[in-house]
Each structure stands twice: as C-alpha cells, then as structure tokens.
UniProtKB/TrEMBL annotation:
Biased composition (Low complexity): 287-308, 316-336
Identification of the protein by name: Uncharacterized protein
Highest taxon listed in the record's lineage: Eukaryota
Cofactor section: Cu(2+)
Family per record: Belongs to the polysaccharide monooxygenase AA14 family.
Main location: secreted
InterPro entries: LPMO_AA14
Positions of region (Disordered): 258-386
Amino acid sequence: MFTKRTTYLALLAAALGGANAHLAAWHEGMYCLNGNTGNQDLNSYDIVTPLYQLPFRDWWCTATSSPPAAGKYIDLPAGGSFKIEIASNRAKTELSYGGRDTSEWPDGQSYPQDYHDAGCITSPNMHAQDQSRAAGTAFAISYHSDIKDVTPENLVVFSVRYNTPWKRIIYYDVPASLPSCPPDGCTCAWGWVPNGCGQPNMYHQAFKCRVSNAKSSVPVKVPAAAPKWCEGNESACVGGSKQMIYWNQKEGNNVVVDGRDRRGDFKSPGYNMGMGFRDGAQNDIFGGSPAPASSSTSSSGGSKPTSTQGAKVNNAPTSTAAGSTSTSSSSSSSPAETPKAFSEKAQRPQSCQRKRRRAAAERREMEAREEVRREEVKREEVKREEVKREEVKRAIGGHHAVHAKRSF
Ligand SMILES: *[C@@H]1O[C@H](CO)[C@@H](O)[C@H](O)[C@H]1NC(C)=O
C-alpha cells in the first residue's frame, strides 16, 4: 500500500514537473522567477501552470506580487530584437546552473529537427502536431511602472512570433518607433494561446521591461482594441493597437469564438493572422500626442541589439518577412484610457503563493480522487471474493447434496 502510494505520488510529481511539463517564458526580468519559495529557486516551475477558467485576479499577469530583482528588466531595443527562453522549468534555462541543463528545446532534451506527432507533441507540451501548427506567442507593453496600474486596455501587443513556442530560444522584434518608458520602466506581458492539442487554456505572464535607443515619442495608442477572429478575411481583422487575447477564463475574456476554423478544428484564437496579428514587430500601434519628455531610460545603452535576421533563422522558418503594413494610425485620438474594467479588488496582485495553493489544491483533489478510486477497486475485489466464496460454497453445498442424495 505504502509503496503503491509512493509510486503514485512519484508519477504525479513527474506528471506535474517532468516530461509533459507545460511551458513558460523566462527572463531575469520576469515576475515569479523563483516561484513561491521567497528564496532563490533554480528549479522553480510555478509559473508554467496554464490558466483556465479562473477569476480575473488569478489569471491576470500571473504572479504579480513576485517582482524581479531590483534593476532587472527586459531591454527592448527600438528597431532591434530581444531574447526570451521558453522552458518547462527554470533549470532548463540559462538562468540556472550556467545553462548546464539546457538544450535546443524547452525541456533540456533532444528531438529531431522535424519533430512531429500527428497525435500532438506532449513532451514538451507544445500543444502542436509540428512547428507549423504552433499557435504563436506575443509580447505586450504597458507604459506603467506599477503593475497595479496595468489594465487590459493599456497593455498593447507590440511583438508576435509565429510558430512558437517551439525551440527554447525566441527572439522577438521591437518596433523601431517604440517610445521610451517612465523612469521606473514599463510593464510587459507574454502571452500564448495554444491551438488545440489539450485543454484550451492560455498563458499570461508579467515582466519588467524598458525601451532602449528610443527615437520616437509618439505614444503607443490606448485604449487598445480587443482583437477579433478574422481568419481568411483580413478586412474583418482589427488593425492598429490591440489588446492581448483573453479567453476561456471565468471573467475578463475579450474574445469569444465558436464553430470551426478552415482546417475543421474548433476555433482557437491565437497570436497569428487568424486574429489579425502579423509576425514580428507591430508597427501600427502608435497614435496620439507625444508624452512630455520624461525618461531617463531611453538611452540606457545596456542592451545589445540582436540581429533580427538571426531571429528569423532561429525560430520562424515558416514565417515570411511580413512586416506590419503601416504606421497609419496617426489619428489625433487622445491617449486617455477607459476606466478599468475590473474592480481594484479584482486587480489585487496575485502571488506565486496563490498559484501554488491552487496547484496544491488540485493535487490534493487528484489524490483524493485516486484514493476514492482505489477504495472502489478494493470494494470490487472484496465483492468479487465474496461472490467467489458464495459460488464455491454453493458448489460444495451442491456437491454435498449430491453426495447426500447418493448416500441415501
Ligand atoms: C469580410 O469581412 C467584412 C467585414 O467584417 C465583411 O463585410 C465581409 O462580408 C467578409 N467577407 C467574407 C467573404 O466573409
């Protein structure tokens, strides 16, 4: 019994943290880098839990109360690109053990270059049959230093990488016109909505970020519009400044789809042309009057611009150089923001703690279910034993009866 349970728990732990692990975006500027421990945790993976049917405060910017260490930001070089790691566990990134446990892939393992599985690749859990089916991921930016001031309407998608998540390293392109951040930096978010292959969940992670080499002071246009499903009909797409995709949560969804896509699968709104997102830097997100000169971070010079060419080679073999079309949204619309869609209470920062508690609760629930299942199996066994004993008894009884008859 004890061994069985131990084995079961070991399997459970493997399922949660091992081979089939989910994926998250990693960078020293991320929230929840160390998970829930409060101390350095080189093996943290609290952040990889997917978000599904949660109240707003539990999915919004996952783990907002565990900010990165002071001075840690993603540097966004205007007109350049920045590097992010996708992994199932911090241990499988360059942020742990000097990269000792990393590979080309998100889980430290090796796979063929044309890795594919018609029944969905689950290890790592990329929610795709092959790279061409990887849904796409995105980065968004809000010009607020305090994460409590970030709303769905002021968090604007500025970069998309098609056919990701796939390999561990992704380069995202930064619009050349991205203006500089306030002195304490901006808040960024990473998003992924997988395309089928399992639970239709989403990812929404927070980072501290800042723009370097900014040349423009035209702000990112807010409020951003919610993106819309427009597969195969570009004129139906929402252009310009767009919110991230929020769906399949208990509250705060900004996208609802029904029916099937052109492939015949259930529609899944992703960071791709099906939702009007082009690959690469989103160059059509600006508008409004320049903000008063503010920043001291604009020429921090700390970032090493990476080549966009390299980015294309690295992670988007199937993507075209379809740069966004225009920067035409120079309308004089005011940068004023709409009221917050959710109450302050709903915006209460979520902690890794809460996430951990939720995971623990789920684990307990699974264990309880397993316990019940084992009890049922035991009862079944007992019942079968009884039935067998009854049969034997009846057989023996019959035998005796026969004997008895005979002996008469
Ligand atoms: C494309 O979208 C536009 C705008 O929503 C709509 O008017 C038009 O009928 C759509 N075309 C097709 C072929 O569905």
